[in-house]
Amino acid sequence: MPKRRYRDTLTGGTGDVNPQVIRASVEQLTLNSYAEKEIDIPLNLPKSGTRATVMEILRIKILYNIVPGPEIGSHKSSWQLSTTSLPQIYMIDNPLVIATDAMTTGTVTTGSVTVTSSLKTYDMTDGAGHGYLIASDNLYFSVATSSFVTNLQRMAIQIIYRWKSIGLTEFIGILTSQS
Question: How far apart are CA 37 and CA 164, in angstroms?
Answer without folding.
Answer: 25
